[in-house]
Amino acid sequence: MTESAERVVLATEDDPLILEHGGRLAHVEVAYETWGELAPARDNVVFVAHALTGDAHAAGEGGWWANLIGPGLAIDTDRFFVVCPNLLGGCRGTTGPSSVDPATGRPWGLDFPLFTVRDLVALHRRLLAHLGVERLYAAVGGSLGGMQVLQWAIEDPEAIERAVVIAASSRLSAQNIAFSAVARDAIMRDPDFQGGAYLTSGRRPDHGLAVARRMAHITYVSEESLETKFGRERLTDGPPRHETDFQVEAYLDHQAEVFLERFDALSYLYLTRVMDYFDPFVDPEAAVRAGSGGTRFLVVSFDTDWRFPTAHSRRLHEHLAAAGTAGEHVEVASPWGHDSFLLQPPGYHDLLRGFLDAP
User: Fold this and answer.
1) Is 143 marked active-site?
2) 264 is a catalytic site residue
3) Which of 50, 99, 119, 143 is an active site residue?
4) What is the spatial distance between Cα 143 and Cα 168, in angstroms, rounded to a whole number?
5) Which of 5, 183, 187, 191 pairs with 162 at a CA distance of 20 to 30 A?
6) Pair (235, 201) in one structural domain
7) pLDDT digits over 34-76, tens only?
């Protein structure tokens, strides 16, 4: 599998990225990785859009979707040229609130402008132009990645032949917004957050970010999977105590610890807010535009996903179907909740392979 990791400047003072809410970014770098070989006709490109805490390293050793992308896998790198960037606002090589503002020489912090899913897609489109690619064979994304794929089809309906939207939503519920609000509050109330100016202080809001990650992770898995894996098993047989005592608590501690090593609190604040405001079908013409270029959709949900339950995917599909857009919605049985899109529940990868292989 041919693999490449790159970083490229996609916005400059002469060609700034103008954001949907009026912000202006005069310098934007994007980190991205590719796998496979680009066909001479440039017609074999599969774009992978990552979720909230993902990054460009989707495939290969340690890749977050290594079970799906690779030689002979559902997204077959012997056949496809696969592109995955770290998205705008991220903290893994692409410009975001932890980056240095060229105008001040200091990290942006909370002065970084708010942005939207539409802005994420605008930068993706600049990346494709940089690569000399006009049309995607497919765009594939789970969770926030699926939101990007949907918005892309709406924004540029001629650009995507097949759109795969997995475990996503076209409009967050009040419960989803509430979960993210509590997570952001935990971060911003951490004394080490320092009004967002922690990046030059030598202190980080690790406690708040760890709380946010613990809570979010609970919503990504199912009650069934936690019960099967941990039940009420304890670390010791001693008397009750305030410290971590149950196996499931230790599991959440580990998830938080690993997360702190690779993610930034500011990116967490900004990207969760991006999801909160996403509501493309408030525009009655959006669903019509999404299919006007011939894009075919596969919308996938999982029966135990209670963060973005099947009703969200069904509603998304119904908007598209009512507008005459070609596609289908499939609910996959899985014990693993929202995280199922990263795993291999029976039939899931075969479903994606079949959609990508169909004439």
Assistant:
1) yes
2) no
3) 143
4) 4
5) 5
6) yes
7) 999 999 999 999 999 999 999 999 999 999 999 999 999 999 9
